[in-house]
C-alpha cells in the first residue's frame, strides 16, 4: 500500500470494517457459520468429513487477497514489523494456542460475537484487548522499540 | 455456487482488512501501544464491522429460514464464562500485543512475500495444532 492509502483519515478504517461485517453476513447467509478465522482454520487441522470444503474455499479467497489487489489496482500491501524472528515465533504460538483454547479471535469473538451481544464473546474480547494493550504498551516502554 | 461464494467472502474479508489498514501489524500496534503515537484506527474498524453485522444479522435471521447451502444456522450454544475462555483470551492477547498479528491479518499476509508474516503463520498453525489435539 502507498502512504496515502494508510492512515490519513479514519474513513478507510470504517469502510474496511463495513466490508468485514458484510463478509461475516455473507458467510452466515450462505453457510450459517460464524466468520471466525481461528475456528475456520483450526478445524481444518482435525478435519471432519462434510465440513471441509467451505473452509478451504474461504481461506483460499482470504489468502489470494494480496495477489488480487496487486493485479486489479496495483495496490502493494505493506507489512511493517520491528519484532525479531524468535519473538514472532513466540507470538505466533501464543496466538494459535490461545485463540483455539479460548474458542475465538478478533473476528469470531470481537466482530461476530460482540455484534450478537454474546456474553462469552464480550468477556473474551475485553480480556484479549486489555491483555494485548498491556503487553504492547509494557513491551515498548521497557525495550523502547 | 456453495463453493464459490465462500471464496469471494474470504476475499471481501481480506480486502476489508487491507483497506482498513489492519493487515499491517504496525497499524495494530499503533492502537494497542497506549504510550506510543496512538492511532484509534482499529476501534473504527471494529465499529464498522460490529454495526454492519449487528444490524444485518437479526434481519437475516428473520428473512432467511435457513442458510442457502446448509440445513441450519450454526451458532455457539455455550454461555458459560469458564476458565478456558478467559485463559485462552489472555494467552491470545499477549501474543497479539507482542506481534500485532491476529489470525485473519496474519493469513492475508501469506502471499505478500513477507518473511515475518510467513514465520508468524507457521508458528500460529503449530500453536493451533497443539490446542486442537490437547482439547480432545
UniProtKB/TrEMBL annotation, chain A:
GO CC terms: plasma membrane
Family assignment from sequence similarity: Belongs to the TsuA/YedE (TC 9.B.102) family.
Protein name: Membrane protein
Protein origin, superkingdom: Bacteria
Any matching Pfam family: Sulf_transp
Keyword Membrane recorded: yes
Residue spans crossing the bilayer: 6-28, 52-71, 83-101, 122-143
Keywords: Cell inner membrane, Cell membrane, Membrane, Transmembrane, Transmembrane helix, Transport
From TrEMBL, chain B:
Keywords from the UniProt entry: Membrane, Transmembrane, Transmembrane helix
Organism annotation: Pseudohongiella nitratireducens
Alphabetical list of InterPro entries matching this protein: DUF6691
Family annotation (Pfam families): DUF6691
Keyword Transmembrane helix appears in the UniProt entry: yes
Protein name: Membrane protein
Sequence intervals crossing the membrane: 41-60, 85-108, 114-133
Amino acid at each position: 500500500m502507498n502512504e496515502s492509502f494508510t492512515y490519513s483519515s479514519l474513513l478507510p478504517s470504517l469502510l474496511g470494517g463495513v466490508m468485514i461485517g458484510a463478509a461475516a453476513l455473507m458467510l452466515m447467509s450462505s453457510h450459517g457459520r460464524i466468520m471466525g478465522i481461528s475456528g475456520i482454520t483450526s478445524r481444518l487441522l482435525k478435519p471432519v468429513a462434510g465440513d471441509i470444503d467451505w473452509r478451504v474455499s474461504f481461506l483460499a479467497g482470504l489468502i489470494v487477497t494480496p495477489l488480487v489487489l496487486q493485479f486489479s489496482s496495483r495496490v502493494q500491501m505493506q507489512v511493517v514489523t520491528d519484532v525479531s524472528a524468535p519473538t514472532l515465533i513466540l507470538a505466533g504460538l501464543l496466538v494459535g494456542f490461545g485463540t483455539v483454547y479460548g474458542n475465538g479471535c478478533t473476528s469470531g469473538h470481537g466482530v461476530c460475537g460482540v455484534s450478537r451481544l454474546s456474553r462469552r464473546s464480550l468477556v473474551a474480547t475485553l480480556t484479549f484487548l486489555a491483555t494485548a494493550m498491556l503487553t504492547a504498551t509494557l513491551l515498548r516502554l521497557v525495550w523502547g522499540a | 455456487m456453495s463453493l464459490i461464494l465462500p471464496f469471494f467472502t474470504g476475499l471481501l474479508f481480506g480486502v476489508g482488512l487491507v483497506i482498513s489498514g489492519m493487515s499491517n501489524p504496525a497499524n495494530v500496534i499503533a492502537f494497542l501501544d497506549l504510550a506510543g503515537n496512538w492511532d484509534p484506527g482499529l476501534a473504527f474498524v471494529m465499529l464498522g464491522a460490529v454495526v454492519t453485522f449487528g444490524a444485518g444479522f437479526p434481519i437475516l435471521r428473520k428473512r432467511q429460514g435457513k442458510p442457502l447451502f446448509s440445513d441450519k444456522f450454526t451458532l455457539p450454544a455455550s454461555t458459560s464464562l469458564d476458565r478456558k475462555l478467559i485463559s485462552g483470551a489472555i494467552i491470545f492477547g499477549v501474543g497479539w500485543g507482542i506481534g500485532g498479528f491476529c489470525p485473519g491479518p496474519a493469513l492475508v499476509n501469506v502471499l505478500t512475500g513477507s518473511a515475518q508474516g510467513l514465520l508468524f503463520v507457521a508458528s500460529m498453525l503449530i500453536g493451533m495444532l497443539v490446542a486442537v489435539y490437547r482439547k480432545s
